[in-house]
Amino acid sequence: MGFGSETGDISTPRKTGFSITSIAESRKIVRAECVQEGVREATKAAGVAAVISTVATLGAVRYVPWVKQHINYTGRALIISAASVAAFFITADKTILECGKRNTTYDKPV
């Protein structure tokens, strides 16, 4: 019927081979983790910058007559998105460089 062989396959643990990661592979993993950490932090910073620049831009449009007359909807959107993009890239760069410094190993002479 095949039922016994199916349960036997499920209950027996699979044997995995013994493997050792190379130095290049471990460095690649660390780099990927640094990039993921940078993107995570940059996304948070971009969200905060978007909220702050939105409040500031819409407040200025409402209370400053010159801004209300001279900056249209596209200009307002560009101000908000420029602040978000700048915050994203600056934070990502700083976070990735900091992670790289943390994970750097130098060959020190004995």
β-sheet strand percentage = under 5%
Poorly predicted parts? none
Any idea what the radius of gyration is? 26 Å
Number of helices: 4
Q: Order of SSEs, N→C?
A: HHHH
Q: What is the 3D form?
A: elongated
Residue share in helix? over 70%
Number of domains: 1
Task: Kindly state the number of beta strands.
Answer: 0
Q: Based on helices, strands and strand pairing, what is the structural class? A: mainly alpha
Largest sheet: none
Pfam families: ENOD93
Organism: Vitis rotundifolia
Protein name: Early nodulin-93
InterPro entries: Enod93 (IPR005050)
Describe what this molecule looks like in 3D.
The radius of gyration is 26 Å and the shape is elongated. It is built from four helices and no strands. By secondary structure, the protein is mainly α. It has helices at 3-11, 23-63, 65-70, 73-102. The chain has one domain (23-102). The mean pLDDT is 84. α2 runs antiparallel to α4 (73-102). Helix content is 78%, strand content 0%. The longest helix is centred in the middle third of the chain and has 41 residues, at 23-63.
Task: Produce the secondary structure layout.
Blueprint: H1 3-11, H2 23-63, H3 65-70, H4 73-102
Helix pairs in contact: 2-4
